[in-house]
Amino acid sequence: MTNPILEIKNATTIVNKGTSSETKILKSMNLTINEGDFITIVGSNGAGKSTLFNIIGGNLVVDSGQILLHGQDISKESEESRTRFLSRVFQDPKLGTAPRMTVAENLLLAKKRGSTHGLHSRKLKQQMDELTAYASKMKNGLEKRMNTATGNLSGGQRQSLSFLMATLKKPDILLLDEHTAALDPKTSRQLLITTDERIREDNLTALMITHHLEDAVKYGNRLIVLTDGKIVADLTGTEKESLTTEKLYSYFEE
Amino acid sequence: MGLIVSAIGQGLLWAILGLGLFLTFRILDIADMTVEGTFPLGAAVGVTAIVNGMSPIVATLLAMLAGMTAGLITGLLYTKGKIPILLAGILVMTAAYSINLRIMGKSNTSLLGHNTLLKADFLKGLPTYYDSVVLGMIVIAVITLLLVFFLQTDLGQAFIATGDNEKMAKSLGIHTDNMKIMGLMVSNAMVGGCGALIAQSNGYADINMGIGTIVIALASIIIGEVVFGELTLTQRLVAVTLGSIIYRLLLLAVLQIGFSANDLNLLSSIVLAICMMLPQLSKALHLDTVFSKGDKVHD
């Protein structure tokens, strides 16, 4: 039985409002995200993929429509407030980590995602073993660099850390915004495999934007195609399982 | 010797300014011009309070409160009003000039015949100039310990993260606007307090005493960084104080070789410019190679 976590109802976003270049980005979009969904999202540039993430994440407020979390309207909630249920990995490895802070310090911050920050000691040393064990899950040597400033890590390690930070405190919804696009093919492949493992093992609900159709077909249990601010295909079950890259490409030619 | 002790005492007192600016300039990564208004604001509030019969401690705390308010205004203009930080700071700095004149009622107020923190009982009996050294050491020790404690807390880490990567900080639920406002308030409270202490040390408050303070604060920070190199955050706080003392000793040296006190702001800017250009100068003049000769094997 499906259990909706997030529902987007008739969401419309407009840019350059009131000017001659006024444009609708999302057009009365409806989308229900169920618990355990791993949704891959594809679409042309400008189709509204990032805008969709931005309205879920609270970086952008919908001009009309609603966003419901477990039935409660969160459309007006700030980005910071929404982090109590949501985490996000950006395309650029530099965006997800604090470069002058160490790997351990970054992880500790992520552990407190969505919580208030008081004048309590951060207790880094006491939590070091736990954080190191967590870092070792990425299987790329990150656990050996716990005291290294993240600015000194390779792009791959830094993005791995971003992913770890997004999943350290289990989010209700994980947004992956082309999170492997800036990495070399090998590192990108490794991170994608680890991403899939973590999502399955931790039973995460995730949305992943990708421009690689084969990845969109291969990963996830549901696939969405966005065109011109609308969902033109929402494939699950056997439809998703039997999908081929060629068939998916045909959506871009229509 | 007396002049050197005096320079160390001044360096310690002025280090409060450097530590205040360190919070915004190095941790939040913003250039806050408010300090040029907050420093004389603290001096004006402190001196006026003392002249009106308040105890020097209360007067200094009031100066900190005034500085904190100025920081709050800059913070609100910057975060809520979306005014660029440089302009927000300049606006408050300019406004503070009028406020300072209103507080003092004139452009200069003397503390002659009034009590100051430097005349506290526990400082009596010390040799000349040692009063500011002892007072400076106590104040700096307290401030440094409080900052070290704060920066190791959850709130302190959220504050550091805001300056390091605001987008990431937001994505972790850190209210970055609040962090910036808090940083500007704490920083300017320290600068206001420093203004009050320097006024008490000098024996007067002057409407123009804020001119060049940002350069002095930056000099403390940057000299500390250039001299001591890569350090931990706690060590960097100590380096700011040592940088402030070195800066005062440098000024003493240039005055000793015959420069006029009127040239101080020019000299401060030159010292700071040289320190900030040192990495480029070092590269251009191949100083790295010269300094490392004998230490490394060259191809």
Automatic annotation (TrEMBL), chain A:
Gene3D superfamilies linked to this entry: P-loop containing nucleotide triphosphate hydrolases
One cellular component (GO) term of this entry: plasma membrane
Keyword ATP-binding assigned: yes
One Pfam family this sequence matches: ABC_tran
PROSITE patterns associated with the record: ABC_TRANSPORTER_2
Domain ABC transporter, residue spans: 6-253
Record key words, sorted: ATP-binding, Nucleotide-binding
Superkingdom of the source species: Bacteria
Entry keyword Transit peptide: no
Single GO MF descriptor: ATP hydrolysis activity
PANTHER family the record matches: ABC TRANSPORTER DOMAIN-CONTAINING PROTEIN, IMPORT ATP-BINDING PROTEIN
This protein's name: ABC transport system ATP-binding protein
Natural source organism: Paucilactobacillus oligofermentans DSM 15707 = LMG 22743
TrEMBL record, chain B:
Pfam family, one: BPD_transp_2
GO molecular function: transmembrane transporter activity
Superkingdom: Bacteria
Spans through the membrane: 12-31, 57-78, 85-103, 133-160, 181-201, 207-228, 237-258
GO cellular component: plasma membrane
Major localisation: membrane
InterPro entries for this protein: ABC_transp_permease
Places the protein is found: Cell membrane
Keywords for the protein's UniProt record, in alphabetical order: Cell membrane, Membrane, Transmembrane, Transmembrane helix
Protein's membrane topology: Multi-pass membrane protein
UniProt entry tagged with the keyword Hydrolase: no
Identification of the protein by name: ABC transporter, permease
Source organism (scientific name): Paucilactobacillus oligofermentans DSM 15707 = LMG 22743
